[in-house]
Amino acid sequence: MDGATKITMQGKASDKLSIGQLIGKYNLLVLLFAFIAIAGFLSPKFLTLQNFLNLLQQSSVTGIMAIGMTFVIIVAGIDLSVGSVAAISGMVVAILITAGWGIPLSIVAALAAGALLGWINGYVSTKFTIPAFIATLAMMVSARGLALLVTNGKPVFGLPEPFSFLGAGFIGRVPVSGLIWIFLTICAALALKYTSFGRNLYAVGGNPEAAHLSGIRVNWHLVSVYVVSGILSALAGIILASWLTVGQPTAAKGAELNAIAAVVLGGASLAGGSGGVWGTFAGVLLMSIITNIFNLVGLASYYQDIFMGLIIVLALVLNKFVTGKKA
Amino acid sequence: MNKSNYILEMKGISKSFPGVQALKQVDMSVKAGEVHCLIGANGAGKSTLMKILAGVYLKDEGETTFQGRPVEITDPISSARLGIAVIYQELSLTQNMSVAENIFLGKYPKKYGIFLNWTELNQRAQAIINDLGIKIDVKKPVSGLSIGQRQIVELAKALATEAKLIVMDEPSATLSGEEFETLVRVIEGLKAKGITVIYISHRLEELFRVGDRVTVLRDGRHITTTDLRELNQDQLVELIIGHTLSKGKNESSVMVTGEEIISLTDVSTSKLTAINLALNKGEILGLYGLVGSGRTEVLRVIYGVDKPLQGHVKIRGKKASFKCPADAIKSGIAMVPENRKTQGLVLNLSVWENSIISSLRMFTQTGVLKYSKMYNKVSEYVGKLKIVTPSIKTPVRNLSGGNQQKVVIAKWLIRKSTILLFDEPTQGIDIGAKEEVYSIIKDLASKEFGVVVASSELEELLQLCDRILVMYNGKVAGEFRKDNFQEETILRYAVAGG
Fold first, then answer.
1. Average pLDDT over residues A230-237
2. What is the pLDDT of residues B129-182, one digit of tens each?
3. CA 20 to 30 Å from B57, out of A19, A44, A148, B292?
4. Is A158 within a domain?
């Protein structure tokens, strides 16, 4: 028997973390503050409220996608189609608004399109037991093709001024898209902690067989997370279209990789059963700050990609050294 | 008899695991070119002995002589180098590769030292298969073959390594009658080539068909090695079960009230034939049988994991057609599965989370989980079941086997399940924890729960149960009430079907 399992605890559990565990738990924050310090050192403009608000706006599209990706990765899945779903939803909302559907109805329709594509992802991968990697890869390719097909590859212009409130508007000095991102992160964090749906996701991701034998409807939960991911990708696509005031079929290309990287940086394991949206939130911010630093020092964009890749791997390797657990 | 007649001699082999002496000074001598059967009830030590031969386990003491030379088998590779091949029940073939590739896996014939020589590979593989008198196209993938044909491919694989001694662990367990006849022919062919076979099986009648001599193990000891022609089936059963088993302690338990809460009528699945079974309120029903006899499958049907092909299941008098465990759980049925690590628990999650995994809905108020209610409930059951853990937030991975098992039980008690199915409830847990699990089970029965315990440990069932059903080959072979628990008879039913 484990030497540490001698005392029976009654009543409420109080447990203290060791220093190693503390660093392990908050190492992403440590990293975040380190990069903030570097950025502040490089440019005094970085440590201004305005720059942080800009950061919030720039990160919100990836951030909202990454919330859905967190759900998917908790159940040991993956969703490669988030970028394409965002593009198609951006096209849907732009086309419908210019066709005179009105802004609210167009947004609802675009969200529904995202939900449908997400459901197809989940249904195909559970019903036919196709790996999620393949099912969503197929969706990534097909949805992008569809987004290009509807206007023959042309962007949709002529979006009305009120629509840009979502992506480019401000309440006071705070960007609306940033507020949406923070609000959704809070909702997702509460859902993961305080609903049986949220708790079941960790069980399904941690051990699907035990979850099944414990009476959890495993497939239903799997399909649900892809629907959630589809809806959130659609919202990200709508916000992006609103920000750019154009429906762009090539929008959000490669966004899936940023979202996955942010979730993993945030402490989730691709093996499933762990992770959370606050970690993902920090992961997205970290990646934006790094990009910000690159821009401040005037690094050419090809170099940016090279260093971003290196930093992601280094962060995870560091994490493994500190906590001794697998990334 | 000349000593060099023996291809393999194992002398004084002992092996112990924490808490268990699996083998005590076991001897086994196998003559070159014979089919040597190895038999014994559950836990007799057959598998341990064969795993030592295969290099999977290291022996604590004893000597092994192979082909007249003393050898040290330290790992599976050194065993294979000597020319020993072991074919396990779970076959080790690569599904999507061809038969020929599987036969020569890792030892492909090459051209110019680099390129795979497909012509030679296919020809040599086909020659081995043909030699066995079997018709299989070696270019076809293994995935298209029947279980019986796969056994043959495993044998061919062993022959390709020029194995001199082949161990077959329950080769017939999954074979149809016709496939078994083929296997018998193939084994006779091997014998004619001078290859030695060690054959492990629970089916006694088979041993008399294929075997020359038999070694009987019981409780980790060597009982006898004898010529099968000098023995009949009854005598063999006597040797397997022995006469020295001690009586289990039978404590008085609450009288069974007689209200039927589970009944199975003529239930058949691919592994079960016409099972009839009834469980009464407040009763502990035991399911005893050897590995593969259908114990677990009966529980799986009740729990909605497998669906009956024929017959029907009634719960509290109502016909039940469960599509999945979730349906069974709604009817108050719970399963404590055989493998708690892979089936019972989510190891990374904490004690509290595993305990309420099936009853989250009971702790929500307008959809919001109440953590204080959950923590209180879990702490209550941690106390009631005496679960030893530093905190309810500790990952279950860090708990001992016995405490992990109690967490699985707590999960169902919190869910307010009233019919509990236990599959090997004390497997791999220490003696102290065993007694605690027993007292929990007895306590449940006294509270009018219905309990079914499937186990391969007869002692356990004798101690716990009001009634024992003995399974043999997917059927109920016999039924014993508490006032009529005769160990020898129960064992006879389990070993020989009656």
1. 98
2. 988 888 889 999 988 888 788 888 988 988 888 899 999 988 876 677 777 888
3. B292
4. yes
B34 and B182: one domain? yes
If one counts the domains in chain B, the total is: 2
Chain B residue numbers touching A210 (CB-CB < 8 A): 342-346, 357
How close does chain B come to A198, measured CA to CA in Å? 10
Query: Does the beta-carbon distance from B326 to A13 stay under 8 Å?
Result: no
Give B423 to chain A, closest Cα distance, Å. 13
Hey, what are A105's tokens?
A: 């109805």
Mind telling me how many Å the CA of B415 is from chain A's nearest CA?
10
User: What is the span of the domain harbouring residue B64?
Assistant: 3-241
- Structural domain ending residue among the three candidates B175, B207, B241: B241
Of the candidates A207, A215, A216, which has its C-beta nearest B347's C-beta?
A: A207
Chain A residues within 8 A of B362 when measuring between CB atoms: none
Do B227 and B317 lie in one domain? The reply is no
Shortest CA distance from B408: residue in chain A: A214
CATH of the domain at B271: 3.40.50.300
Would you call A8 and B389 a contact, using CB atoms and an 8 Å cutoff?
Answer: yes
Give the closest of B357, B372, B386 to A203, CB-based.
B357
Task: Determine, yes or no, domain membership for B96.
Answer: yes
Give pLDDT, residue B492: 86
Taking an 8 Å cut-off on Cβ atoms, the answer to whether B325 and A274 are in contact is no
For the cut 90, the answer to whether the pLDDT of residue A18 exceeds it is no
Backbone torsions φ then ψ of B28, nearest 5 degrees: -150, 125
Residue B255 lies in a domain: no
Residue B247 pLDDT class (50, 70, 90 cuts): very low
User: What CATH number does the domain containing A215 carry?
Assistant: 1.10.3470
Taking CA–CA distances from B363, the nearest residue in chain A reads A196
Query: Which pLDDT does position B245 carry in this prediction?
Result: 38
Locate the chain B residue with the closest alpha carbon to A271.
B348
Mutate to test the interface with A, among B391, B411, B412, B415 (most CBs of A within 10 A): B391
Q: Is A142 on the interface with B (CB under 8 A)?
A: no
Residue B325 has its nearest CB partner, among A4, A199, A213, at A213
> How far is A313 from chain B, CA to nearest CA, in Å?
24
Evaluate whether residue A21 is within a structural domain: no
Residue B252 forms part of a structural domain: no
pTM: 0.76
Does residue B56 lie in a domain region? yes
Contact A8 B387 (CB under 8 A): yes
On whether both B221 and B267 belong to a single domain, the answer is no
Among A residues 238-297, those touching chain B with beta carbons less than 8 Å apart: 273-274
3-state SS of chain B is CCHHHEEEEEEEEEEEECCEEEEEEEEEEEECCCEEEEECCCCCCHHHHHHHHHCCCCCCEEEEEECCEEECCCCHHHHHHHCEEEECCCCCCCCCCEHHHHHCCCCCCEECCCEECHHHHHHHHHHHHHHCCCCCCCCCEHHHCCHHHHHHHHHHHHHHCCCCEEEEECCCCCCCHHHHHHHHHHHHHHHHCCCEEEEECCCHHHHHHHCCEEEEEECCEEEEEEEHHHCCHHHHHHHHHCCCCCCCCCCCCCCCCCCEEEEEEEEECCCCCCEEEEEECCCEEEEECCCCCCHHHHHHHHCCCCCCCEEEEEECCEEECCCCHHHHHHCCEEEECCCHHHHHCCCCCEHHHHHCCCCHHHHEECCEECHHHHHHHHHHHHHHCCCCCCCCCCEHHHCCHHHHHHHHHHHHHHCCCCEEEEECCCCCCCHHHHHHHHHHHHHHHHCCCEEEEEECCHHHHHHHCCEEEEEECCEEEEEEEHHHCCHHHHHHHHHHCC
